[in-house]
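TL;DR need C-alpha cells for one chain.
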Amino acid sequence: MKMKKSMILLMCTVLVIGLLAGCSSNSPAPAETPETNAGSDDGSNGETIVLRLADTHNDGYVTVEADREFARLVEEKTEGRVKVEVYPGAVLGDEKATIEQAQFGAIDFVRTSISPLSEFNKELGILMLPYLYRDVDHMFNVLDGEIGDDFLESLEENNLLGLTWFDGGARNFYNTKKEVKSVEDLKGMKIRVQESKLMMDLVTSLGAVPTPMAFGDVYSALQTGVIDGAENNWPSYFSTSHYEVAKYYTVDEHTRAPEVILVSKMTFDKLSAEDQEAIKEAAKEASLFQRVEWAKEEAAAEEAVVAKGAVITRLESNQEFQDAVQSMYAEFGAGYEDLIERIINTK
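>> reply
TL;DR here they are.
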C-alpha cells in the first residue's frame, strides 16, 4: 500500500511539472526548412530558382535536345542560381495551351512554332508567307537582325518575351502519283493541309484541292486514295513513314515557319538583371546548337527516304510557284508591304 501511494504521488508530480512547462512556454513551433524555390523568388536568398520549359515534341527530337542544351547553359551561366526543367511530349499541354499558361506565369518557358503564336500576335503571320525566303540562310539573316528582334520584342504586349529563333525546316509537297515539276502538275490533286486559312489558300492558289485533316490520319488517307498528297519537312516525311505510300517528294520550300523560345514576362521580371542577361545569352547559344542539329536531321532523313525508294525532285526555280501565290501577299500582307519588302531585300 505504501509503495502504491508513492507511485501515485510520483505520477502526479510529473503531470504537474509537464502542465507548468506547457503553460510557461510562449515560443512558436520551429519553422519548416524551406524547399528549393520555383520562379517566385529572385534568388537573392541564395536558393536555386527552378523554372519549367514546355515542349510538345517527344524526347530525342531536335528541339527537345536544344531545350536541354538551353537548360544546361542557363545553369552554367547563372552559376547554379537558376535551373530549368524541360517537360517534353506535351505533358504541360499543346502549344496554344502552354503559351496561354506562360502569359500568366504558370509555365516559365515555351518552345513553340510561330504558327499557333500568330493567333496571339497577328503580325507573326507575315513570317509564314509562302516563298518569302530564298533559303534558310536568308531566313536567319532576317530573324537574327533588326526585323527578327522587333518581332521578338513585340510579344511583350502579350505578356511574353521572345528569346531566340529555332529552325522549323521548310515544308515541301509530296504525293502518291507523279513527280511535280510545275504548278500544272499539282492541279486537281487533293492535298492534306493544316486547318489554317493561309495553308488552304496556298494550295488553292497552286490549283490543288486543300483537304484539312488530322496529322495522324494522313498515312491511311494517302494509302487509300482519300488524298493524293500532303506537305511537310524532311524529318516529318521520314518519321511518319509517309514515304512508303507517297514516294514523290518535291523540294519547293513553300513555307518556313520558324520556332521560338518564349519566356513569361511575369517570370522574367522577377529575376535579377544578371540572370536575365545570362538567360538571353543561353537562348542565343542554344539556338545555334539547334540549327546545326536540325540540318543534320534533315540530311539524315533525306538520305533515309532515298534509300527506301523515294523520288526526290528539286526545282531549278520556284518562280512559277511564287507567281501563282502573289494574290496571297495582297490579302495576308495588307498593311505590311514595307516590312515584306525589307524581308525580301535582306541579303
